[in-house]
Amino acid sequence: MVVSNVQRPQRKRPAHPVLTLARRSVHTRARRTALASTLVYLAVAALVIVGADIAAFGVAGAWAQFTAHLGTRLAFVLVTGALIYVIVARLLASSAERERRLHTALVETYEHTLSGWTRALRLRDQETEGHSARVTELAVRLGATMGLRGEALEHLRQGALLHDIGKIGVPDAILRKPGPLGDEEWVEMRRHPEYAYAMLAPIDHLRPILDIPYCHHERWNGSGYPRGLAGEAIPLPARIFAVVDVWDALTSDRPYRKAWSDKQVLGYLKAHAGDLFDPAVVRAFAALIEGERQVVALRRVA
Predict the structure, then answer these.
(1) Is the dihedral of CA 46, 51, 54, 60 positive or negative?
(2) What does the radius of gyration of the chain's CA atoms come to, in whole angstroms?
(3) Are 121 and 52 contacting, i.e. CB atoms less than 8 angstroms apart?
(4) Could you give the domains of the chain?
(5) CB neighbourhood size of 90 (10 A)
(6) Which is the catalytic residue, given 12, 167, 177, 263?
(7) Would you call 134 helix, strand, or coil by DSSP?
(8) Most buried pick, 9, 17, 40, 269, via CB within 10 A?
(9) pLDDT tens string 142-188
(10) pTM of this prediction?
(11) Cα first-last separation, the chain
(12) Does residue 167 have an active-site annotation?
């Protein structure tokens, strides 16, 4: 149960900027391509007509022939050019629209797959109930605050949603053990980022979201796992998520302790900035939480 006293503003989930093709964009590209094709045709047609006249009448005669029939030839080229533009634009738009629909279907299938994996993990690990949704929403807000946009922000969202997907490979006896884990059990538990990599890396569409599932347990000073990365060698999405993950864990009740207050958790994060966490991420996160607290206070006064 989350006891944090900061009320989270309702925000819409970001769209899929890299996976969604806008209908207007599809038709705009089709028209531009058709126009370019038509211009090429007009240039080639003019060269062919002039070349044919030169071959038949010589340079001097070609000019007289060209000017004498300028209106007819210009009308022919323009009419055929317009027909080419219409035909090419329609063909390209139709093809692009089919591609857009197939792509939309792929996006929906992809999103259903992510949701299915998340539900499967939730059934195995009761501790993740609600956790994935909370950290995903907060990670996206923090990522946007730190300047992530478009596909980078969407990859962060998807990576946060599947951050613990590797736990599917951890045996139930360890994952659902009610008491503390032994040394050998911790070794196995700490392999879940490697299991996540093994699951996601072979899938082209999922490879860009690996930063969080594979690296969110790395620490700024190199003391994390699985690879002991340090500093900016840790991908930014993983550095962002590490702060959010600790925030959610410490502001939530656990069987072995009560939830910490927001003030306590912010103090912990600031104390370990430059040690366990990226200092820039901690500063941005503290500003985000404190700013939201001020917004809530102002709304209560109003």
Answers:
(1) positive
(2) 30
(3) no
(4) 126-301 (1.10.3210.10)
(5) 12
(6) 167
(7) helix
(8) 269
(9) 999 999 999 999 999 989 988 988 888 888 888 888 778 899 999 99
(10) 0.64
(11) 29
(12) yes
